[in-house]
Write a structure and sequence with these properties.
Number of helices: 7
Shape: globular
Strand content: under 5%
Distance between the termini: 58 Å
Number of strands: 0
CATH superfamily of the largest domain: MFS general substrate transporter like domains
Length: about 170
């Protein structure tokens, strides 16, 4: 796993894992919806479940731990990892406690909720999460500073245009 992370990069593995999980969740939904019409859809659902787990173990399972450790300097790193761990376990607990109720409520469309959330996570990671492979903390912090400065510059440019129009 570590060799794969170092070779492919954290961000690309994370995005590939999220997209694979998204496709698997859609396949599980299709399999469950069409199960009453086609008996072989149970195999589609089983394969989708296995692929979901595989993609999780390649991307969203381990990669956030790498990224969190690399996004923070030595001082705040333990607190950041503690918050990330708490969020991870809290979300796992919530899904575990609520899944049966949601499945009873949504029926075969229960995994469509996961697909929607995975799409949101994918888009967030695509636009906001930087690649941290081979970069020092200072280089990663500089990426965030550039994004913050460019957003500030865009706001100032829009304000200037509005004042010129008035």
């Amino acid at each position: 796993q570590v060799f794969l992370v170092e070779k492919a990069g954290r961000r690309s593995l994370f995005l590939a894992g999220l997209m694979g999980m998204l496709i698997s969740a859609v396949a599980m939904t299709v399999g469950l919806v069409l199960l009453s019409q086609f008996a072989w859809m149970s195999y589609v659902s089983m394969v989708a479940i296995f692929l979901f787990v595989i993609f999780f173990e390649v991307g969203p399972g381990p990669i956030p731990w790498f990224i969190v450790a690399e996004l923070f300097s030595q001082g705040p790193r333990p607190a950041a990892i503690a918050v990330a761990g708490f969020c991870n376990w809290a979300c796992n607990f919530i899904v575990g406690m609520c899944f049966q109720y949601i499945a009873d409520l949504c029926g075969p469309y229960v995994f469509a909720i996961f697909a929607g959330l995975l799409l949101i996570f994918f888009l967030f990671a695509y636009f906001k999460v930087p690649e941290t492979k081979g970069k020092s903390f200072e280089e990663i912090a500089a990426v965030f500073r550039r994004k913050k400065l460019s957003a500030k510059a865009m706001t100032e440019l829009q304000d200037l245009r509005r004042s010129e129009e008035a």
